[in-house]
């Protein structure tokens, strides 16, 4: 689930949804940061509504009272491999969004994994392509339920001008 989604995706009752929005809790990310005790302090939210919220977020494998923060890339991080030196590369990333005038816009690209590869001239290109696409599919499977939202797995094959 994308944590930058509106709380409307949670299928909450009108009472819950309206009470949360009145407190400016618009995104799922904002909601799961709160503990059940903090939610119970919101006007028009009682024990029943807290339970409803807990049940809805748990359907997506989330819990209340947690905060998922992206790991910021350091300047000398191994992720700073220069893409232009690779023949192929796979990049796994997700976008952090910001809400401006009720419109979500891309704020920051968060790279989770980067694999830079060089062409093996002892293998046929088709065999390398099979290896690369299998690796891409494995990365997609590995990051399928990433808690910070939708993850993109990008495969770039520079020498052939193909971008998967």
Summed up, what is this model?
The protein is of the alpha+beta class. The protein has helices at residues 14-22, 28-32, 36-40, 47-58, 125-142; strands at residues 88-100, 103-117, 152-157, 162-163.
Outline the structure in words.
The chain has 164 residues and is of the alpha+beta class. The model is unreliable at 73-79 (pLDDT under 50). Strand 1 (88-100) and strand 2 (103-117) form a beta hairpin. The protein contains five helices and four strands; from the N terminus they run ααααββαββ. It folds into two domains: 7-58, DNA polymerase, domain 1 (Orthogonal Bundle), CATH 1.10.150; 78-163, no CATH class. It is elongated. It has a four-stranded antiparallel beta sheet, covered by helices on one side. The longest helix is centred in the C-terminal third of the chain and has 18 residues, at 125-142. Helix content is 30%, strand content 22%.
Strands ordered across the widest β-sheet = 2-1-3-4
In whole angstroms, the N-to-C terminal distance is 23 Å
Report low-confidence residues grouped into runs of 5 or more: 73-79
Count of structural domains: 2
Summed over residues and divided by their number, the pLDDT gives a mean of 78
Largest sheet composition: 4 strands, antiparallel
What level of helicity do the residues show? 25-40%
Give helix and strand order, one letter per element, not per position.
HHHHEEHEE
| Number of E-state strands | 4
Estimated radius of gyration: 21 Å
Number of helices: 5
Percentage of residues in strands? 15-25%
Shape type: elongated
Structural class: alpha+beta
